[in-house]
Automatic annotation (TrEMBL):
Residues 1-73 form the HTH gntR-type domain. This is HTH-type transcriptional regulator LutR. It holds the Pfam family GntR. InterPro entries: GntR_C, TF_FadR/GntR_C, Tscrpt_reg_HTH_GntR, WH-like_DNA-bd_sf, WH_DNA-bd_sf. Keywords: DNA-binding, Transcription, Transcription regulation. SMART domains: FCD, HTH_GNTR.
Length: 228
């Protein structure tokens, strides 16, 4: 085990034991190094890894905000990892699409069963903004991604939401590539708007099966149309 991994293992154990909670600062680098019997560069490397994973936020200096503070951004590390693996070719687009279908069909079914028409205001507002026919494709894709994350959020499962948020960069990447392949983007945009409304309407009615079918066809339909 490399030295910085020893630091990571110790910090993980201390977090699990409740030594530090959200919003609390970890000991200074020097204190951690002395406590664990390792070098300060090893502590610094471990903190960089934790920051990339969305576990801590670091700030330089000597003020009250300096050092590493425990936060909770599980999607940060997931998003970076997924984007890099897609870029390297390790994760193919089809795998991302299938994972997205699994997550979103479950989420809308759960949301329909538990929330019904409640808590839909964020998703409705996003769709209302997307109805503007003058939106350029880039802005449309940005709102589209936010809408799908909002849908998953309705299921009230923090881990599923984090995974979906982590996939967001990879999803936006393949959707952008697909958009460039389309012969008639305005026509596709009209269809996507209608499909979004159909999914949300099914959730609002409490029709979990209908919402799941609609979101599956919506995701896979674009994948097929764009020839991805």
């Amino acid at each position: 085990m490399r030295t910085h991994e020893i630091v990571l293992a110790r910090i993980e154990a201390d977090l699990a034991a409740g030594r530090w909670g959200l919003g609390e600062r970890l000991p200074a680098e020097r204190s951690l190094a002395e406590e664990l019997g390792v070098s300060r560069p090893s502590v610094r490397e471990a903190l960089r890894v934790l920051e990339a994973m969305g576990i801590v936020r670091t700030a330089v200096g000597s003020g009250p905000d300096a050092g590493a503070t425990v936060i909770d951004r599980p999607a940060a590390g997931l998003g970076a990892a997924v984007r890099l693996h897609v870029a390297s070719g390790t994760l193919v687009v089809r795998d991302v699409v299938e994972t997205r279908v699994l997550l979103e069909t479950w989420a809308v079914g759960q949301a329909a069963a538990t929330a019904g028409g409640a808590g839909l205001s964020e998703a409705v507002a996003l769709l209302d903004t997307m109805d503007d026919p003058s939106l350029d494709p880039a802005r449309f894709r940005e709102l589209d991604a936010a809408f799908h994350v909002a849908l998953v959020r309705l299921a009230a499962n923090v881990l599923v939401e984090a995974v979906m948020t982590g996939l967001r960069g990879a999803i936006e990447s393949y959707v952008e590539a697909g958009t460039e392949r389309l012969e008639d983007w305005p026509r596709t945009a009209v269809r996507l708007r209608a499909e979004h409304r159909a999914v949300l309407d099914a959730v609002a009615r409490g029709d979990g099966a209908g919402a799941a079918d609609a979101v599956r066809e919506h995701i896979e339909g674009f994948y097929r149309e764009a020839g991805l």
